[in-house]
Amino acid sequence: MSRDFGFVAGAPVNRLATSSAFAVASAAAIGGLTLIEPRHLGPGAQAAYRITTAALTGAYTAATLPVGTTVGMPARYTDGPRGQFIPLVDIGRGSAALAAGGLSLGLAEPFEALDARITDWLADRGVRRPRWWMAGVGVAMVAAGWASDRAEARALQRALQRGADEYTEDGGHGPVDPAVAAILDVLLQPGIPGTEALRLQLETAEQQGTAIQQDAEFMTDAFLVVHPDTPRITPRTQTWPVKARFQRGDALFEIELQVHGGQLDSVSLMLADEMFGPDSPVDHEAAIESITAWPDPEELELVTEAADPLP
User: Fold this and answer.
1) Phi–psi pair at 72, nearest 5 degrees
2) In angstroms, how far apart are the furthest CA atoms of the chain?
3) pTM higher than 0.85, yes or no?
4) Which residues contact 12 (CB under 8 A, 6 or more apart)?
5) Percentage helix, strand, coil, to 5, in the chain?
6) Alpha-carbon dihedral 38, 43, 44, 46, rounded to 10 degrees
7) DSSP assignment letter at 254
8) What pLDDT digit, counting tens, does each position of 255-294 carry?
9) What is the rounded CA–CA span in Å between residue 6 and residue 11?
10) N or C end: fewer C-beta atoms under 10 angstroms in the chain?
């Protein structure tokens, strides 16, 4: 179960980061290093201290980085479907550890200067053992981070279980809505490369969330699940070149089919691009809300994508 945060998608917390042994080891390492006052070290000991700190920083980053963290962008920025995420770069643990360790090593001198100022500030205010106080703060921060990761992991586990229960009891897959199947039958025109394979997929296709949708308002998207053994098409990810249009009052609507992984993925109903012009008299939200069911095939006018833009 992944989570999207704008330009970063993070997977569940790494299991190691939630273990008690990791918390104890991390607290001991950070507390022990904090007890050392780096400005009193000689050149050799100072170099060893910096390398050890960088190595610990890199190891801690790698251990706490969620598995599968990805940098990308919301699909809506490329006119894609809302709620989808376009992955660009996967952040591996090794690269993250090297980056964190390198940053720690590169900023060692200013960090040590700040460390000295904090130590002197505490000493000037009567703290007898400032390094012990600083070590205690470091251990407390590690403990707080561990508790946060552990709470997040438990919350995610509960959410996964709740989602599984809802999926079993209320959602799941069911037969494709006959109205959606009729529209797909119209869109899958003979002569378009991939039509035959998609028609074979349609024979085994199911629709997601059918139990929930029985009592819900009309949804303008129908998401499909296809048997994995059916033949696939290429390009594996595409907007099907045949679209269906229909008119309701002043509003012109368009229905398009999305193919993902070479399989039927979704059917979406939306306002046609022409309705978004500055001179359009159509209230977009009201127009979409006025649609309470999929249109009949007889209402549809097919438009096949060509190299030239639509007139």
Assistant:
1) -165, -145
2) 87
3) no
4) 1, 2, 66, 67, 153, 156
5) 50, 20, 30
6) 20
7) E
8) 999 999 999 999 999 999 888 888 888 899 899 999 999 9
9) 14
10) C
